[in-house]
Amino acid sequence: MSWESRRSRREVILTAWVADGVPGVVDVNNSPAIEKEWEKKSDEKIKSDLISKLKTTLLDRSDQIEVSVENGKVILRGEVATWREWQLAMDLAFKAGARHPHNLLNVRYHPPHGRSRIFVPQ
Q1: Could you report the per-residue pLDDT of 38-67, keeping only the tens digit for each?
Q2: Among 52, 46, 51, which residue's Cα sits nearest to residue 65?
Q3: Contact status, residue 67 vs residue 54, Cβ threshold 8 Å
Q4: Are both 60 and 87 inside the same structural domain?
Q5: Do 101 and 68 share a structural domain?
Q6: Phi-psi bin for 73: left (phi > 0), alpha (psi -120 to 50), beta?
């Protein structure tokens, strides 16, 4: 039985009602996710698996990421080029067996916001 089917309609309505009373709330994601139980893995194994995955995926840029692991919690430090690489590093940490990874990676390139900066004479 899924989590959604175990929740009563009353709980869904109550959650929306409570959120509606909070200033600044514009949307409520009323579909909570349940975290699966962490499978114990040694810190050394998590670190070596993650470094291997980073080298395979990010190739020459993997040396710009420092990986530390303590009690299954991974901390990523360093720099990546894009937000996609930032998210990829986070996904790889989970796949390597991390419990609650902390992604402290700096993103070098940010997409432009707003209108184009290119001037086109008319």
Answers
A1: 788 999 999 999 999 999 988 777 788 999
A2: 51
A3: yes
A4: yes
A5: yes
A6: beta
pLDDT per position as a tens digit, 63-103? 889 999 999 999 999 999 888 899 999 999 999 999 889 99
Q: Are residues 99 and 65 in the same domain?
A: yes
122 is a domain residue: no
* Helix, strand, coil percentages for the chain (3-state, nearest 5): 40, 15, 45
d(CA 7, CA 30): 11
Q: Say how far apart CA 7 and CA 13 lie, in whole Å.
A: 11
State the CATH number of the domain containing residue 98: 3.30.1340.30
Q: Which amino acid is at 34?
A: I
Q: Domain range holding 69?
A: 43-107
Count of structural domains within the chain = 2
